[in-house]
Amino acid sequence: MVDRLLAIVAPHSCCGCGNPGSLLCETCKNDIIFEPFSVCFGCLRPVGASAVCPACQGDLGVSDGWSVGVREGVLKELLDRYKFDAVREAGPACGSLLDAVVPPLPPDVVVVPAPTSPAHRRVRGFDHMYDVTRSFARRRSLKSRRLFVRKSSDTQHFKNKAERLAYTG
């Protein structure tokens, strides 16, 4: 609520073009969603319609998925403001991006966030991934639930790719 009140007096500027009014203007949002992310989540090799190549399906334990894009440029700025500056308005912006790239889902789908570490929840004052999943689910008239529990309070922020893939916390 405080973020919304402050936005009236001191509006956010777009993470891409810097124009005032929102964290992500429609033009910059379209630049992100019309640049398809077509590489495997596991090995980053080019793929077609699926986000996981056949070689990585067994290693990752998933057969498909969706991603808005590579964490660079405008998307990196948006995510950094959300995660490290606790700019809550970025949650709905991320939910909107997901809504734009994820294909239609069955109405009984439950959207589940990856659990955030307790330390990060305390620092931010909110669970950023739960906010994103709630925003996305609301746009799609789906349910959003916290169904997973973290096994540890370890964070992945400073881990390399191999350590992240091996992470089971």
Describe this structure in words.
- By secondary structure, the chain is mainly alpha-helical.
- The protein contains eight helices and two strands, in the order αααααβααβα.
- A two-stranded parallel ribbon has the order 1-2.
- Helix 4 packs across helix 5 and helix 5 packs across helix 7.
- The longest helix is centred in the middle third of the chain and has 13 residues.
- The two termini are 32 Å apart.
- The mean pLDDT is 84.
Task: Give the key terms.
169 residues, mainly alpha
Secondary structure: elements and pairs:
Elements: H1 2-9, H2 26-33, H3 54-60, H4 73-85, H5 90-101, E1 110-111, H6 118-124, H7 128-140, E2 143-144, H8 161-166
Parallel strand pairs: 1-2
Number of strands: 2
The structure class reads: mainly alpha
H-E string: HHHHHEHHEH
Q: Give the neighbour order of strands across the main sheet.
A: 1-2
* Structural shape: globular
> What is the beta-strand fraction?
under 5%
Gap between N and C termini, in Å? Answer: 32 Å
Nutshell version of this structure?
The chain has 169 residues and is an all-alpha fold.
